[in-house]
Structure formats: structure tokens, C-alpha cells
């Protein structure tokens, strides 16, 4: 894959990473679609390696924040009172009686 093609792939990855970061800030679910990596033909060119490492570090930070958010939500849900199961039987009210 040429340096230009790698740069385009990194641009796309960064755009999706920005969406994921924004979704975390706004607490929005599903704002960033999963990244589909392009087919890679050979190693990343040296001129793209530093940028790729930086994006990977950011992505790992987003992943850590997502894990922490999931754990926080689970803890909040565990503290919520449980509602009784809804009964299938119906009660009627006699309004004329």
C-alpha cells in the first residue's frame, strides 16, 4: 500500500476516532460506526508510522474510557431498585356498582 493510501486510511480512522471521542463527551450511543480497515498490502511506510502510533494511543484511550463508562453504568444499574414483575392478569374496576 502506498504512503498516500496509508495516509487516506489513517485519515478515515482519525475521523471515526473523533466521532467516538465526541460520542463519549456527549454521552451518545452509537455515534461512531465501527472502523473497517482497508486491505493492507505490506507494512506501513515509515513516514506514516508516527501518526499511526499516535492514533493507536488515542484509540486505546477511547477504549479505556468506554470500559470505565460501561463499568460505571453497570454499577448505577445495580444500585437501582428492582421493580416487581408485571402480572399478566388484568383487574377490572366496577364503575356502576
Largest sheet: number of strands, sense, barrel closure: none
Total number of strands: 0
- The parts where pLDDT drops under 50 for at least 5 residues are none
Order of helices and strands: HH
- Tally the structural domains: 1
Q: Could you report the average pLDDT, rounded to the nearest whole number?
A: 83
Helix content: 55-70%
**Strand proportion:** under 5%
- Envelope shape: elongated
Query: Rounded to an integer, what's the Rg over CA atoms?
Result: 24 Å
Summed up, the helix count is: 2
Distance between the termini: 83 Å
Helical/strand content category: mainly alpha
Brief overview, please?
With 97 residues, this protein is mostly helical. The chain has helices at residues 3-26, 46-79. Helix 1 runs parallel beside helix 2.
Write the layout of secondary structure elements.
Layout: H1 3-26, H2 46-79
Description:
The chain is built from two helices and no strands. By secondary structure, the protein is mainly alpha-helical. α1 runs parallel beside α2. The radius of gyration is 24 Å and the shape is elongated. The chain starts with a helix and ends in an 18-residue tail after the last helix.
Any descriptors?
elongated; about 100 residues; 2 helices
Amino acid at each position: 500500500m502506498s504512503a498516500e493510501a496509508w495516509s487516506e486510511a489513517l485519515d478515515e480512522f482519525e475521523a471515526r476516532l473523533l466521532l467516538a471521542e465526541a460520542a463519549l463527551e456527549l454521552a451518545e450511543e452509537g455515534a461512531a460506526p465501527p472502523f473497517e480497515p482497508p486491505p493492507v498490502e505490506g507494512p506501513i511506510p515509515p513516514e506514516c508510522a508516527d501518526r499511526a502510533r499516535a492514533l493507536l494511543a488515542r484509540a486505546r484511550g477511547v477504549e479505556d474510557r468506554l470500559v470505565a463508562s460501561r463499568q460505571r453504568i453497570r454499577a448505577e444499574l445495580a444500585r437501582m431498585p428492582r421493580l416487581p414483575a408485571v402480572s399478566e392478569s388484568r383487574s377490572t374496576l366496577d364503575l356502576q356498582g
